[in-house]
Write a structure and sequence with these properties.
two-stranded antiparallel sheet
């Protein structure tokens, strides 16, 4: 995965990401099958919609690693973040997502082109795994008051 500062004026498009091969016939880039493997500091997820690459392939399953202090500090020096603080989540997520479908080089251009629902999902997922160390959230049914756990990494409602 590419790391470090992105030059000023960089649009986020990356030839390595943009040149993604067409989806394999098994449909793995289309979100079929289990999310990619993750280690003790990485967590699999499935996006509600998925990133659509320039070939029309949809990438829904991915892996996000836990953030380090460095991961949270380095984006603060990025000119795009200094000009627009809301851009912090784009830069931060591009550092932490280690895989998305068949893509292994996730840059800010990929995160910029996610659907809003997927960006919101990843922001919540980031908060959950970095605050609790787990993608599991406890909740209560509003009707029957039954308490249960929900794995935020799994595809909810889809």
């Amino acid at each position: 995965m590419r790391r470090g500062r992105v030059p000023a004026g960089h649009t986020g498009s990356d030839a390595r990401t943009a040149a993604s091969p067409p989806a394999p016939p098994d449909g793995s880039a289309a979100g079929g099958g289990a999310p990619p493997a993750a280690g003790p500091t990485s967590f699999p997820f499935t996006l509600p919609r998925g990133y659509v690459d320039r070939y029309g392939n949809t990438h829904r399953t991915g892996v996000m690693r836990l953030a380090t202090a460095r991961d949270e500090l380095i984006p603060l020096t990025d000119i795009r973040v200094r000009e627009n603080p809301a851009y912090l989540s784009v830069v931060l997520l591009s550092r932490l997502i280690t895989r998305l479908g068949t893509l292994e080089d996730i840059d800010s251009g990929v995160v910029e082109n996610l659907f809003a629902v997927d960006l919101a999902f990843l922001q919540k997922f980031y908060e959950k795994i970095n605050l609790d160390g787990t993608p599991v959230a406890s909740t209560v049914c509003p009707d029957c008051r039954h308490e249960f756990d929900v794995d935020m990494g799994s595809r909810l409602g889809g």
